[in-house]
Here is the input.
Amino acid sequence: MASSTYNPQLAPLEVNAATGEPFLRIEGYDDIIITPPRWDDGPQIIPHLNDPRVWQWMQGPPVPYLPSDAESWLNHVKPLSDEVLEELEAAKDSAELITVGHCPVSMIRKVNEDGSEQQIGSIDIIRSHDCGEVVKSQEDPNTYVVDLTRKEGNEGRNKERNIGDPDIIWEFGDYLAPAFHSRGIMTAAVRTIMQKWALPRMNVHIMRAGTFAGNIGSGKVFLKNGFRHIITLPDHAVVRGESKTLDLYEWEAPESTATGS
Ligand SMILES: CC(C)(COP(=O)(O)OP(=O)(O)OC[C@H]1O[C@@H](n2cnc3c(N)ncnc32)[C@H](O)[C@@H]1OP(=O)(O)O)[C@@H](O)C(=O)NCCC(=O)NCCS
Here is the structure.
């Protein structure tokens, strides 16, 4: 994997000199980095997602979280990262930085003093595939309303839009191992991913995050990164047999003229 010369298309990712693996250092934390997923991440992910301090706030991962779940997750995310890294490699002689449709780094790792690395969480950016019914009000574009008749069409269009289209609505998904909560790490991770990759390399203009009502920490992470709370969706989903209310946050590039549809 190691390549002797730095591919400028990776910018601003750094490259681990020993392994050739690209990474982003989380701003303000010398010992916390974000790297691509690795095939052997499963055993480290499993205890995090079996901890109720993590899973109670998450919709996707099954509970209990089994080795086969970690394997399916890695089978999903690793190829997405590999594909972007291959595109960047193929474009290495282009003078201009290409725009890509995914962030190749998503696993948050602590680098220990002996150089070993410990997976402590993840931060993913995906195209939003939910909440297509939440659209800007025609009377007041600062206000969002629910229009169920537009849900399916909006979600379908969001999937189909071309890479780099500023109207794509993106969404964050994240978690951190409880031992690392409340140290400012996720606030800085969101800031780093947005500033270093999502905006310059994916042309992201609209980013959303949905948190279950009561997830104060997660809401703060997004508010501190310039997101605003746009709507509360009562009883949005039934998760593990329980009805969940969703708080939806959105960040929009200042120059964005998107209509939210
Ligand atoms: C949500 C989560 C990612 C936040 O990450 P974090 O690194 O702990 O967040 P930060 O340290 O950057 O904290 C941001 C703010 O939230 C506060 N906070 C963090 N966890 C909190 C909690 N459990 N309860 C209340 N406040 C909390 C912090 O004190 C900080 O507040 P401040 O700015 O007023 O000091 C992390 O708590 C987590 O993984 N939770 C479980 C999974 C989850 O909720 N994922 C998100 C799904 S939407």
Remarks:
- The chain has six helices and eleven strands.
